[in-house]
């Protein structure tokens, strides 16, 4: 029976260090190990654990390398305010930023843009776009292109105290209500007509 392919994500990734440590300390009862990681939050089956550990029967398991953080976690850490991260998240973000120059630069740009938004510093927009253009971040360049296309609107959004959030919220609720009302039986054209006429 072959072990899972190296490099492929597995639902066991967060539990491998524990499994290897316990296996090498002499606990080779796979049912017991499955119970232990289930108590830690593992939602997979016994057979997942069995298939992973079976190749190690009769020998020691190699040292498990802790799995790298998931993309959604890194994205969350980059988007949140630094003071809203707990100590463990701050350490992990620091490690990620040290390991990848592009993510380090991206975090800096995201942080500066957030300061512009929360402090209404629209006067910094052009300097921010120019700084983004100097770095090798193609997807951020695409975002900057969109900001330049709607420059006046973005500038007003970053400087004026007004918000269209309430209106957009009502429109979103109305569209969702109409979609549920039609229960998937209508195409986009009918949905548009109903939204405009109601």
UniProtKB/TrEMBL annotation:
Pfam family, one: DDE_Tnp_ISL3
Domain Transposase IS204/IS1001/IS1096/IS1165 DDE: 76-193
Secretion signal span: none
InterPro entries assigned to the protein according to its UniProt record, in alphabetical order: Transpos_ISL3, Transposase_DDE
PANTHER family hit by this protein: TRANSPOSASE FOR INSERTION SEQUENCE ELEMENT IS1557
Protein name: Transposase
